[in-house]
RNA sequence: GGCCUCAUCGUCUAACGGUUAGGACAGCAGGUUCUCAUCCUGCAAAUCGGGGUUCGAUUCCCCGUGGGGCUGCCA
Protein backbone atom coordinates (compact mmCIF):
# COMPACT_ATOMS: atom_id res chain seq x y z
CA UNK A 1 0.00 0.00 0.00
CA UNK A 2 1.49 3.32 -1.06
CA UNK A 3 0.98 6.03 1.54
CA UNK A 4 2.25 9.53 1.92
CA UNK A 5 2.89 12.26 4.43
CA UNK A 6 2.45 15.77 3.02
CA UNK A 7 3.51 18.50 5.46
CA UNK A 8 3.39 22.18 4.69
CA UNK A 9 6.72 23.90 5.24
CA UNK A 10 5.31 26.46 7.63
CA UNK A 11 7.59 25.55 10.52
CA UNK A 12 8.53 22.49 12.51
CA UNK A 13 6.98 19.04 12.49
CA UNK A 14 3.96 18.86 14.79
CA UNK A 15 3.63 15.86 17.13
CA UNK A 16 0.19 15.23 15.67
CA UNK A 17 1.82 15.19 12.27
CA UNK A 18 4.40 12.75 13.53
CA UNK A 19 1.65 10.40 14.65
CA UNK A 20 -0.10 10.60 11.29
CA UNK A 21 3.24 10.04 9.57
CA UNK A 22 3.90 7.07 11.83
CA UNK A 23 0.56 5.43 11.06
CA UNK A 24 1.04 6.00 7.33
CA UNK A 25 4.60 4.74 7.42
CA UNK A 26 3.49 1.65 9.35
CA UNK A 27 0.87 0.80 6.77
CA UNK A 28 3.25 1.21 3.85
CA UNK A 29 6.02 -0.78 5.48
CA UNK A 30 3.65 -3.49 6.63
CA UNK A 31 2.72 -4.12 3.02
CA UNK A 32 6.27 -3.75 1.80
CA UNK A 33 5.39 -0.69 -0.25
CA UNK A 34 6.55 2.91 -0.43
CA UNK A 35 6.08 5.72 2.02
CA UNK A 36 6.26 9.06 0.24
CA UNK A 37 7.14 12.47 1.56
CA UNK A 38 5.58 15.32 -0.38
CA UNK A 39 5.91 19.01 0.39
CA UNK A 40 2.74 21.08 0.16
CA UNK A 41 3.99 24.61 -0.29
CA UNK A 42 1.11 26.12 -2.19
CA UNK A 43 0.75 28.98 0.23
CA UNK A 44 3.69 31.17 -0.61
CA UNK A 45 3.01 33.57 2.22
CA UNK A 46 3.19 30.94 4.92
CA UNK A 47 6.22 29.04 3.64
CA UNK A 48 9.18 29.32 5.97
CA UNK A 49 12.78 28.87 4.80
CA UNK A 50 14.44 25.90 6.43
CA UNK A 51 11.15 24.29 7.37
CA UNK A 52 11.54 21.39 4.96
CA UNK A 53 14.96 20.54 6.39
CA UNK A 54 13.62 20.75 9.91
CA UNK A 55 10.66 18.49 9.15
CA UNK A 56 12.76 15.90 7.33
CA UNK A 57 15.27 15.89 10.18
CA UNK A 58 12.57 15.32 12.75
CA UNK A 59 11.20 12.43 10.73
CA UNK A 60 14.67 10.98 10.35
CA UNK A 61 15.22 11.24 14.10
CA UNK A 62 12.07 9.19 14.55
CA UNK A 63 13.32 6.65 12.03
CA UNK A 64 10.54 7.33 9.55
CA UNK A 65 12.47 7.50 6.30
CA UNK A 66 10.74 8.13 3.03
CA UNK A 67 11.22 5.66 0.21
CA UNK A 68 10.23 8.23 -2.31
CA UNK A 69 9.83 11.97 -2.50
CA UNK A 70 11.68 14.61 -0.57
CA UNK A 71 14.65 13.53 1.53
CA UNK A 72 17.90 14.71 3.01
CA UNK A 73 21.17 13.55 1.48
CA UNK A 74 24.41 14.81 3.02
CA UNK A 75 22.41 17.67 4.47
CA UNK A 76 20.84 18.70 1.18
CA UNK A 77 17.22 18.45 0.18
CA UNK A 78 16.82 16.08 -2.74
CA UNK A 79 13.91 14.42 -4.50
CA UNK A 80 13.96 10.74 -5.35
CA UNK A 81 11.39 8.68 -7.19
CA UNK A 82 9.62 8.35 -10.50
CA UNK A 83 6.49 10.32 -9.69
CA UNK A 84 8.11 13.66 -9.03
CA UNK A 85 8.45 16.46 -8.58
CA UNK A 86 7.35 15.97 -5.00
CA UNK A 87 7.24 19.64 -4.13
CA UNK A 88 3.95 21.20 -5.10
CA UNK A 89 5.34 24.56 -6.14
CA UNK A 90 7.24 22.66 -8.85
CA UNK A 91 4.06 21.08 -10.18
CA UNK A 92 2.10 24.18 -11.14
CA UNK A 93 1.56 23.24 -14.83
CA UNK A 94 -0.01 19.98 -13.72
CA UNK A 95 -2.61 21.69 -11.58
CA UNK A 96 -3.31 24.16 -14.33
CA UNK A 97 -3.88 21.32 -16.77
CA UNK A 98 -6.47 19.59 -14.63
CA UNK A 99 -8.11 22.84 -13.66
CA UNK A 100 -8.61 23.51 -17.36
CA UNK A 101 -10.15 20.09 -17.72
CA UNK A 102 -12.62 20.86 -14.98
CA UNK A 103 -13.37 24.16 -16.63
CA UNK A 104 -14.09 22.44 -19.93
CA UNK A 105 -16.31 19.81 -18.37
CA UNK A 106 -18.30 22.52 -16.62
CA UNK A 107 -17.28 21.57 -13.08
CA UNK A 108 -15.35 24.76 -12.52
CA UNK A 109 -15.83 28.44 -13.34
CA UNK A 110 -13.98 31.73 -13.23
CA UNK A 111 -14.69 34.12 -10.40
CA UNK A 112 -13.64 37.76 -10.35
CA UNK A 113 -15.08 38.70 -7.00
CA UNK A 114 -12.71 40.71 -4.83
CA UNK A 115 -11.80 39.68 -1.31
CA UNK A 116 -13.59 42.78 -0.16
CA UNK A 117 -16.84 41.76 -1.78
CA UNK A 118 -16.55 38.22 -0.43
CA UNK A 119 -15.95 39.54 3.03
CA UNK A 120 -19.00 41.74 2.88
CA UNK A 121 -21.10 38.91 1.55
CA UNK A 122 -20.04 36.64 4.38
CA UNK A 123 -20.77 39.27 6.93
CA UNK A 124 -24.29 39.71 5.65
CA UNK A 125 -24.87 35.98 5.54
CA UNK A 126 -23.70 35.65 9.12
CA UNK A 127 -25.97 38.47 10.16
CA UNK A 128 -28.88 36.68 8.52
CA UNK A 129 -27.82 33.54 10.43
CA UNK A 130 -27.09 31.70 7.24
CA UNK A 131 -24.11 29.55 6.41
CA UNK A 132 -21.46 31.69 4.71
CA UNK A 133 -21.22 30.49 1.12
CA UNK A 134 -20.25 31.98 -2.19
CA UNK A 135 -23.39 33.43 -3.81
CA UNK A 136 -22.35 32.30 -7.30
CA UNK A 137 -22.41 35.81 -8.72
CA UNK A 138 -19.77 34.90 -11.30
CA UNK A 139 -21.30 31.57 -12.26
CA UNK A 140 -23.70 33.21 -14.66
CA UNK A 141 -21.13 35.48 -16.32
CA UNK A 142 -21.37 35.27 -20.13
CA UNK A 143 -18.40 33.62 -21.76
CA UNK A 144 -17.32 36.65 -23.70
CA UNK A 145 -17.33 38.79 -20.60
CA UNK A 146 -15.12 36.29 -18.85
CA UNK A 147 -12.71 36.36 -21.79
CA UNK A 148 -12.71 40.14 -21.90
CA UNK A 149 -11.99 40.53 -18.19
CA UNK A 150 -9.20 37.97 -18.24
CA UNK A 151 -7.67 39.76 -21.23
CA UNK A 152 -7.94 43.05 -19.40
CA UNK A 153 -5.75 41.54 -16.70
CA UNK A 154 -8.39 41.39 -14.04
CA UNK A 155 -7.39 38.93 -11.28
CA UNK A 156 -9.56 35.86 -10.96
CA UNK A 157 -9.78 32.50 -9.27
CA UNK A 158 -11.20 29.20 -10.39
CA UNK A 159 -14.07 27.84 -8.38
CA UNK A 160 -15.51 24.38 -8.21
CA UNK A 161 -19.18 24.07 -9.08
CA UNK A 162 -20.71 21.92 -6.36
CA UNK A 163 -23.85 19.97 -7.29
CA UNK A 164 -26.17 21.32 -4.62
CA UNK A 165 -28.80 18.66 -5.06
CA UNK A 166 -26.48 15.70 -4.51
CA UNK A 167 -25.75 13.74 -1.37
CA UNK A 168 -22.14 12.57 -1.25
CA UNK A 169 -21.46 9.39 0.68
CA UNK A 170 -18.23 7.65 1.52
CA UNK A 171 -16.81 4.89 3.65
CA UNK A 172 -13.85 6.11 5.67
CA UNK A 173 -11.30 3.53 6.83
CA UNK A 174 -11.53 4.77 10.39
CA UNK A 175 -14.90 6.51 10.62
CA UNK A 176 -17.03 4.17 8.57
CA UNK A 177 -19.94 5.46 6.48
CA UNK A 178 -20.20 9.22 6.02
CA UNK A 179 -22.78 11.40 4.26
CA UNK A 180 -22.71 15.05 3.17
CA UNK A 181 -25.45 17.23 1.72
CA UNK A 182 -24.30 19.03 -1.41
CA UNK A 183 -26.52 21.95 -0.56
CA UNK A 184 -24.25 23.11 2.23
CA UNK A 185 -20.92 22.70 0.46
CA UNK A 186 -19.34 25.91 -0.76
CA UNK A 187 -18.01 26.42 -4.29
CA UNK A 188 -14.42 25.82 -3.27
CA UNK A 189 -11.63 27.85 -4.84
CA UNK A 190 -9.35 25.47 -6.74
CA UNK A 191 -6.87 27.85 -8.31
CA UNK A 192 -5.90 31.05 -6.57
CA UNK A 193 -5.34 34.33 -8.36
CA UNK A 194 -1.58 33.85 -8.04
CA UNK A 195 -1.89 30.70 -10.14
CA UNK A 196 -1.20 28.36 -7.24
CA UNK A 197 -3.70 25.63 -6.47
CA UNK A 198 -5.42 25.34 -3.13
CA UNK A 199 -4.89 22.22 -1.04
CA UNK A 200 -8.09 20.70 -2.37
CA UNK A 201 -7.05 20.57 -6.01
CA UNK A 202 -3.39 19.90 -5.33
CA UNK A 203 -3.93 16.95 -3.04
CA UNK A 204 -6.36 15.26 -5.43
CA UNK A 205 -4.08 15.71 -8.44
CA UNK A 206 -0.98 14.59 -6.55
CA UNK A 207 -2.45 11.63 -4.77
CA UNK A 208 -3.81 10.37 -8.05
CA UNK A 209 -0.65 10.98 -10.05
CA UNK A 210 1.52 9.55 -7.30
CA UNK A 211 -0.59 6.40 -7.12
CA UNK A 212 -1.45 6.80 -3.48
CA UNK A 213 -3.67 4.01 -2.16
CA UNK A 214 -4.61 5.51 1.16
CA UNK A 215 -4.88 9.13 2.17
CA UNK A 216 -4.34 9.48 5.88
CA UNK A 217 -4.83 12.88 7.47
CA UNK A 218 -6.22 14.62 10.51
CA UNK A 219 -9.89 14.75 11.33
CA UNK A 220 -9.97 18.47 10.58
CA UNK A 221 -10.20 17.52 6.91
CA UNK A 222 -13.39 15.55 7.27
CA UNK A 223 -15.63 18.47 6.35
CA UNK A 224 -13.88 19.04 3.06
CA UNK A 225 -13.82 15.39 2.07
CA UNK A 226 -16.89 15.66 -0.23
CA UNK A 227 -15.13 18.30 -2.32
CA UNK A 228 -12.23 15.93 -2.83
CA UNK A 229 -14.47 13.00 -3.67
CA UNK A 230 -16.23 15.13 -6.27
CA UNK A 231 -12.93 16.13 -7.83
CA UNK A 232 -11.86 12.53 -8.23
CA UNK A 233 -15.19 11.81 -9.85
CA UNK A 234 -15.03 14.79 -12.24
CA UNK A 235 -11.48 14.01 -13.26
CA UNK A 236 -12.49 10.43 -13.91
CA UNK A 237 -10.06 9.02 -11.39
CA UNK A 238 -10.30 6.16 -8.94
CA UNK A 239 -10.89 7.51 -5.45
CA UNK A 240 -8.23 6.39 -2.97
CA UNK A 241 -9.09 5.07 0.45
CA UNK A 242 -9.26 7.73 3.14
CA UNK A 243 -8.53 7.43 6.84
CA UNK A 244 -9.26 10.43 9.04
CA UNK A 245 -7.25 10.19 12.22
CA UNK A 246 -8.73 11.66 15.41
CA UNK A 247 -7.17 14.85 16.70
CA UNK A 248 -4.61 15.25 19.46
CA UNK A 249 -6.05 17.43 22.18
CA UNK A 250 -4.93 19.85 24.89
CA UNK A 251 -5.89 19.18 28.49
CA UNK A 252 -9.02 21.27 27.92
CA UNK A 253 -9.94 19.10 24.95
CA UNK A 254 -9.31 21.72 22.32
CA UNK A 255 -7.12 20.94 19.32
CA UNK A 256 -3.54 20.53 20.51
CA UNK A 257 -1.87 23.90 20.34
CA UNK A 258 1.41 25.59 21.03
CA UNK A 259 -0.07 27.75 23.73
CA UNK A 260 -0.66 24.83 26.05
CA UNK A 261 2.61 22.92 25.78
CA UNK A 262 5.15 21.67 23.34
CA UNK A 263 3.86 20.63 19.94
CA UNK A 264 7.08 20.68 17.95
CA UNK A 265 8.91 17.38 17.61
CA UNK A 266 12.10 19.45 17.73
CA UNK A 267 11.28 20.46 21.27
CA UNK A 268 10.92 16.86 22.36
CA UNK A 269 14.24 16.05 20.76
CA UNK A 270 15.86 18.96 22.57
CA UNK A 271 14.39 17.88 25.88
CA UNK A 272 16.11 14.55 25.47
CA UNK A 273 13.25 12.20 24.70
CA UNK A 274 14.12 8.96 22.99
CA UNK A 275 12.51 8.50 19.60
CA UNK A 276 11.38 5.07 20.76
CA UNK A 277 9.48 6.64 23.65
CA UNK A 278 7.76 9.37 21.66
CA UNK A 279 6.77 6.96 18.92
CA UNK A 280 5.54 4.35 21.38
CA UNK A 281 3.45 6.95 23.18
CA UNK A 282 2.05 8.42 19.98
CA UNK A 283 1.22 4.99 18.58
CA UNK A 284 -0.93 4.20 21.60
CA UNK A 285 -2.64 7.59 21.51
CA UNK A 286 -5.59 6.60 19.43
CA UNK A 287 -4.64 3.05 18.63
CA UNK A 288 -4.51 -0.08 20.75
CA UNK A 289 -3.35 -3.61 20.02
CA UNK A 290 -6.31 -5.31 21.70
CA UNK A 291 -3.95 -6.80 24.26
CA UNK A 292 -2.40 -5.34 27.39
CA UNK A 293 0.96 -4.83 25.73
CA UNK A 294 2.15 -1.26 26.20
CA UNK A 295 5.76 -1.27 25.08
CA UNK A 296 6.27 -1.55 21.36
CA UNK A 297 9.27 -1.39 19.13
CA UNK A 298 8.76 0.02 15.66
CA UNK A 299 9.07 -3.54 14.36
CA UNK A 300 6.30 -4.75 16.66
CA UNK A 301 4.10 -1.85 15.65
CA UNK A 302 4.67 -2.73 12.04
CA UNK A 303 3.41 -6.24 12.71
CA UNK A 304 0.44 -5.31 14.83
CA UNK A 305 -0.85 -1.96 13.64
CA UNK A 306 -4.20 -1.87 11.90
CA UNK A 307 -6.68 0.89 11.10
CA UNK A 308 -9.57 -1.11 12.54
CA UNK A 309 -8.17 -0.54 16.00
CA UNK A 310 -7.75 3.21 15.63
CA UNK A 311 -9.99 5.19 17.96
CA UNK A 312 -12.72 7.53 16.70
CA UNK A 313 -12.48 10.09 19.47
CA UNK A 314 -9.72 12.64 19.97
CA UNK A 315 -7.08 11.93 22.58
CA UNK A 316 -5.57 14.26 25.13
CA UNK A 317 -1.80 14.49 24.87
CA UNK A 318 -0.73 13.53 28.39
CA UNK A 319 2.93 14.36 28.94
CA UNK A 320 3.03 12.33 32.16
CA UNK A 321 2.31 9.17 30.28
CA UNK A 322 4.89 10.12 27.69
CA UNK A 323 7.41 10.48 30.51
CA UNK A 324 6.56 7.01 31.73
CA UNK A 325 7.28 5.61 28.29
CA UNK A 326 10.53 7.55 28.33
CA UNK A 327 11.52 5.88 31.61
CA UNK A 328 10.58 2.49 30.26
CA UNK A 329 12.65 2.97 27.15
CA UNK A 330 15.66 4.39 28.99
CA UNK A 331 15.76 1.28 31.14
CA UNK A 332 15.13 -1.04 28.23
CA UNK A 333 18.20 0.13 26.33
CA UNK A 334 21.22 -2.16 26.62
CA UNK A 335 24.01 -0.62 28.75
CA UNK A 336 26.09 -0.10 25.62
CA UNK A 337 23.25 1.57 23.75
CA UNK A 338 22.43 3.74 26.71
CA UNK A 339 26.06 4.77 27.07
CA UNK A 340 26.28 5.57 23.39
CA UNK A 341 23.28 7.89 23.58
CA UNK A 342 24.49 9.90 26.54
CA UNK A 343 28.19 9.95 25.74
CA UNK A 344 28.00 12.90 23.31
CA UNK A 345 25.99 14.84 25.87
CA UNK A 346 28.40 14.18 28.73
CA UNK A 347 31.40 14.77 26.49
CA UNK A 348 29.91 18.12 25.58
CA UNK A 349 30.49 19.23 29.14
CA UNK A 350 33.43 17.01 30.08
CA UNK A 351 35.57 16.31 27.00
CA UNK A 352 37.50 13.55 28.73
CA UNK A 353 34.34 11.45 28.78
CA UNK A 354 34.66 11.08 25.03
CA UNK A 355 37.59 8.67 25.27
CA UNK A 356 36.85 7.25 28.70
CA UNK A 357 37.18 3.45 28.49
CA UNK A 358 35.11 3.11 31.65
CA UNK A 359 32.25 5.20 30.32
CA UNK A 360 29.76 2.38 29.91
CA UNK A 361 30.33 1.22 33.48
CA UNK A 362 29.68 4.75 34.72
CA UNK A 363 26.68 5.23 32.48
CA UNK A 364 25.11 2.08 33.81
CA UNK A 365 25.05 3.60 37.27
CA UNK A 366 22.58 6.26 36.21
CA UNK A 367 20.45 4.30 33.79
CA UNK A 368 17.71 3.64 36.35
CA UNK A 369 17.92 7.14 37.70
CA UNK A 370 17.73 9.29 34.62
CA UNK A 371 14.63 10.36 32.74
CA UNK A 372 15.95 12.81 30.17
CA UNK A 373 19.22 12.42 28.33
CA UNK A 374 20.58 15.93 29.07
CA UNK A 375 20.51 15.14 32.79
CA UNK A 376 23.37 12.70 32.26
CA UNK A 377 26.13 15.30 32.30
CA UNK A 378 25.24 16.55 35.73
CA UNK A 379 24.57 13.08 37.09
CA UNK A 380 28.03 11.90 36.08
CA UNK A 381 29.89 15.14 36.80
CA UNK A 382 31.73 13.80 39.85
CA UNK A 383 33.56 11.31 37.66
CA UNK A 384 35.07 14.08 35.59
CA UNK A 385 35.66 16.92 38.03
CA UNK A 386 36.49 17.00 41.72
CA UNK A 387 33.27 17.44 43.67
CA UNK A 388 32.84 20.25 46.07
CA UNK A 389 31.88 18.38 49.22
CA UNK A 390 30.01 20.43 51.77
CA UNK A 391 30.51 19.52 55.44
CA UNK A 392 26.80 20.01 56.06
CA UNK A 393 26.01 17.40 53.44
CA UNK A 394 28.34 14.85 55.05
CA UNK A 395 26.41 14.94 58.27
CA UNK A 396 22.90 13.62 58.20
CA UNK A 397 20.36 13.58 60.93
CA UNK A 398 18.34 10.88 59.28
CA UNK A 399 21.36 8.61 58.85
CA UNK A 400 22.61 9.47 62.33
CA UNK A 401 25.85 10.89 61.08
CA UNK A 402 26.91 13.63 63.48
CA UNK A 403 29.80 16.06 63.27
CA UNK A 404 31.37 14.31 66.25
CA UNK A 405 31.09 10.88 64.70
CA UNK A 406 32.27 11.88 61.24
CA UNK A 407 36.08 11.68 61.75
CA UNK A 408 35.78 8.17 63.20
CA UNK A 409 33.60 7.02 60.34
CA UNK A 410 35.94 8.42 57.75
CA UNK A 411 38.92 6.82 59.46
CA UNK A 412 37.19 3.43 59.40
CA UNK A 413 36.33 3.87 55.73
CA UNK A 414 39.82 4.92 54.75
CA UNK A 415 41.48 2.11 56.66
CA UNK A 416 39.17 -0.57 55.38
CA UNK A 417 39.26 0.51 51.76
CA UNK A 418 42.98 1.11 51.78
CA UNK A 419 43.44 -2.48 52.92
CA UNK A 420 41.88 -3.76 49.70
CA UNK A 421 44.61 -4.58 47.18
CA UNK A 422 44.33 -2.55 44.02
CA UNK A 423 43.83 -5.64 41.87
CA UNK A 424 40.83 -6.70 43.97
CA UNK A 425 39.10 -3.32 43.75
CA UNK A 426 35.57 -4.13 42.70
CA UNK A 427 32.08 -3.52 43.89
CA UNK A 428 31.75 -6.96 45.46
CA UNK A 429 35.03 -6.69 47.35
CA UNK A 430 34.19 -3.22 48.58
CA UNK A 431 30.79 -4.39 49.70
CA UNK A 432 32.18 -7.48 51.41
CA UNK A 433 34.82 -5.53 53.30
CA UNK A 434 32.47 -2.80 54.40
CA UNK A 435 29.89 -5.38 55.49
CA UNK A 436 32.53 -7.01 57.66
CA UNK A 437 33.25 -3.64 59.19
CA UNK A 438 29.56 -3.23 59.98
CA UNK A 439 29.31 -6.61 61.62
CA UNK A 440 32.39 -6.07 63.79
CA UNK A 441 31.62 -2.48 64.69
CA UNK A 442 28.71 -0.59 66.12
CA UNK A 443 27.97 1.54 63.09
CA UNK A 444 24.81 1.29 61.08
CA UNK A 445 24.88 0.88 57.35
CA UNK A 446 23.67 4.40 56.69
CA UNK A 447 26.26 5.86 59.01
CA UNK A 448 28.97 4.31 56.92
CA UNK A 449 27.60 4.59 53.43
CA UNK A 450 26.07 8.07 53.51
CA UNK A 451 29.40 9.82 54.22
CA UNK A 452 31.21 7.59 51.76
CA UNK A 453 28.75 8.34 48.98
CA UNK A 454 28.71 12.06 49.71
CA UNK A 455 32.50 12.25 49.95
CA UNK A 456 32.79 10.63 46.56
CA UNK A 457 30.04 12.50 44.75
CA UNK A 458 29.38 15.71 46.63
CA UNK A 459 25.73 15.20 45.82
CA UNK A 460 22.63 14.63 47.93
CA UNK A 461 21.39 12.16 45.29
CA UNK A 462 23.59 9.87 43.29
CA UNK A 463 24.29 6.27 42.45
CA UNK A 464 25.07 4.04 45.44
CA UNK A 465 28.24 4.19 47.48
CA UNK A 466 29.65 0.76 46.58
CA UNK A 467 29.23 1.07 42.83
CA UNK A 468 30.48 4.64 42.78
CA UNK A 469 33.61 3.72 44.69
CA UNK A 470 34.19 0.79 42.37
CA UNK A 471 33.79 2.89 39.24
CA UNK A 472 35.92 5.70 40.62
CA UNK A 473 38.87 3.43 41.38
CA UNK A 474 40.87 2.97 44.54
CA UNK A 475 43.16 5.94 44.18
CA UNK A 476 40.45 8.52 43.63
CA UNK A 477 38.20 7.01 46.25
CA UNK A 478 40.85 7.30 48.92
CA UNK A 479 41.91 10.73 47.73
CA UNK A 480 38.41 12.07 48.12
CA UNK A 481 37.90 10.42 51.48
CA UNK A 482 41.10 11.94 52.83
CA UNK A 483 40.25 15.29 51.41
CA UNK A 484 37.11 15.66 53.49
CA UNK A 485 38.77 14.48 56.69
C1' G B 1 -25.70 30.12 13.48
C1' G B 2 -24.99 25.98 9.61
C1' C B 3 -22.61 21.37 8.42
C1' C B 4 -19.65 17.19 9.91
C1' U B 5 -18.19 14.36 13.90
C1' C B 6 -17.29 12.23 18.76
C1' A B 7 -18.84 10.24 23.86
C1' U B 8 -16.20 3.87 29.36
C1' C B 9 -12.12 5.71 35.68
C1' G B 10 -8.79 12.59 36.10
C1' U B 11 -5.91 10.66 31.38
C1' C B 12 -4.84 6.67 27.36
C1' U B 13 -7.88 2.60 26.61
C1' A B 14 -10.19 -3.08 26.74
C1' A B 15 -14.75 -5.68 26.87
C1' C B 16 -18.98 -12.22 20.07
C1' G B 17 -25.60 -8.39 23.19
C1' G B 18 -24.49 -12.07 29.03
C1' U B 19 -17.59 -9.88 32.79
C1' U B 20 -17.41 -8.76 40.22
C1' A B 21 -16.81 -3.44 33.49
C1' G B 22 -10.23 -5.40 32.58
C1' G B 23 -5.23 -3.01 31.83
C1' A B 24 -1.85 1.26 31.86
C1' C B 25 -0.45 6.48 33.43
C1' A B 26 -1.28 9.82 37.24
C1' G B 27 -3.04 9.76 42.63
C1' C B 28 -3.04 7.51 47.51
C1' A B 29 -1.13 3.69 51.20
C1' G B 30 2.64 0.20 52.21
C1' G B 31 7.32 -2.78 51.21
C1' U B 32 12.68 -3.13 49.43
C1' U B 33 16.84 0.49 50.11
C1' C B 34 23.04 4.22 52.29
C1' U B 35 20.52 8.98 49.11
C1' C B 36 17.71 9.67 44.68
C1' A B 37 15.64 6.59 41.45
C1' U B 38 14.29 1.71 40.05
C1' C B 39 11.48 -2.39 41.66
C1' C B 40 7.29 -4.99 44.36
C1' U B 41 2.26 -5.11 46.85
C1' G B 42 -2.33 -2.98 47.75
C1' C B 43 -6.35 0.93 47.52
C1' A B 44 -9.46 4.38 45.20
C1' A B 45 -11.52 5.66 40.52
C1' A B 46 -15.78 5.13 34.74
C1' U B 47 -20.14 3.15 30.95
C1' C B 48 -23.31 11.54 29.76
C1' G B 49 -29.13 11.65 30.20
C1' G B 50 -33.90 9.82 28.42
C1' G B 51 -36.55 6.59 25.49
C1' G B 52 -36.80 2.20 22.56
C1' U B 53 -35.28 -3.12 20.50
C1' U B 54 -34.14 -7.55 23.53
C1' C B 55 -34.97 -12.68 28.32
C1' G B 56 -30.61 -9.41 28.83
C1' A B 57 -27.70 -3.41 26.62
C1' U B 58 -21.10 -0.24 27.74
C1' U B 59 -22.33 -2.67 23.12
C1' C B 60 -27.87 -1.87 18.39
C1' C B 61 -31.66 2.37 17.11
C1' C B 62 -33.87 7.31 18.17
C1' C B 63 -33.94 11.95 20.80
C1' G B 64 -31.48 15.10 23.96
C1' U B 65 -26.96 17.00 26.36
C1' G B 66 -21.98 17.97 26.19
C1' G B 67 -17.22 18.21 23.55
C1' G B 68 -14.46 18.84 19.11
C1' G B 69 -13.60 20.10 13.90
C1' C B 70 -14.87 22.92 9.62
C1' U B 71 -17.32 27.23 7.95
C1' G B 72 -10.13 31.58 4.27
C1' C B 73 -7.62 33.23 -2.76
C1' C B 74 -4.40 28.55 5.06
C1' A B 75 -3.14 23.73 5.18
Helix-strand layout with pairing:
Blueprint lengths: L2 E3 L9 H16 L4 E3 L13 H12 L5 E6 L2 E5 L11 H13 L3 E4 L3 H13 L15 H9 L5 E4 L6 E6 L3 E6 L7 E3 L7 H11 L4 E5 L6 H10 L6 E5 L2 E2 L15 H7 L3 H10 L13 H7 L10 E2 L2 H14 L2 H15 L9 H8 L8 H5 L1 H4 L6 H4 L11 H13 L8 H14 L4 H13 L7 H8 L1 H10 L2
Parallel strand pairs: 1-2, 2-3, 10-11, 12-13
Antiparallel strand pairs: 3-4, 5-6, 6-9, 7-8
Helix pairs in contact: 1-10, 6-7, 9-11, 12-13, 17-18, 17-19, 17-21, 18-20, 19-20
The structure holds one RNA strand of 75 nucleotides.
Describe the structure.
The protein has helices at residues 15-30, 51-62, 92-104, 115-127, 143-151, 199-209, 225-234, 265-271, 275-284, 298-304, 319-332, 335-349, 359-366, 375-379, 381-384, 391-394, 406-418, 427-440, 445-457, 465-472, 474-483, and strands at 3-5, 35-37, 68-73, 76-80, 108-111, 157-160, 167-172, 176-181, 189-191, 214-218, 241-245, 248-249, 315-316. By secondary structure, it is an alpha/beta fold. The strands form five sheets. A four-stranded mixed beta sheet has the order 1-2-3-4, sandwiched between helices. The chain is elongated and about 105 Å long. The protein binds one RNA strand of 75 nucleotides through α4, β8, β13, α11 and α19.
Summarize the structure.
The protein is an alpha/beta fold and about 475 residues long.
Which percent band covers the strand fraction?
5-15%
Query: How would a crystallographer describe the biggest sheet?
Result: 4 strands, mixed
Q: Percent of residues in helical segments?
A: 40-55%
Indicate the radius of gyration in whole angstroms: 32 Å
Specify the structural class.
Answer: alpha/beta
Shape: elongated
In the predicted model, the low-confidence regions spanning at least 5 consecutive residues are none
Number of strands: 13
Count of separate DSSP helical elements: 21
Strand order of the largest sheet: 1-2-3-4
Mean pLDDT rating: 93
**First-to-last CA distance:** 70 Å
Amino acid sequence: MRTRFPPSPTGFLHVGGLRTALYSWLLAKKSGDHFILRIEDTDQERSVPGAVESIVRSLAWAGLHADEGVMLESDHIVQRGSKGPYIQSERLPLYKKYADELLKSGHAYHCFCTSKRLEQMREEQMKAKKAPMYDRLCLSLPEDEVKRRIKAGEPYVLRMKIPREEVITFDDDIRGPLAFQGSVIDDQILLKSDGFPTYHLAHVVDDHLMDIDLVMRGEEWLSSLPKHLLLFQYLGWKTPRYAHVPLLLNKDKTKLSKRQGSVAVEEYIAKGYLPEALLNFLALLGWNPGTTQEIFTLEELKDQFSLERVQNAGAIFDVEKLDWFQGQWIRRLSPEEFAARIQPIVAGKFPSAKSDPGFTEKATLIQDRLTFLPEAADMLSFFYEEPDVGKDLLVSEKQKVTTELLPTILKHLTDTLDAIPGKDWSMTTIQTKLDQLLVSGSLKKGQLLWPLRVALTGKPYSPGAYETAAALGKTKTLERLRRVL
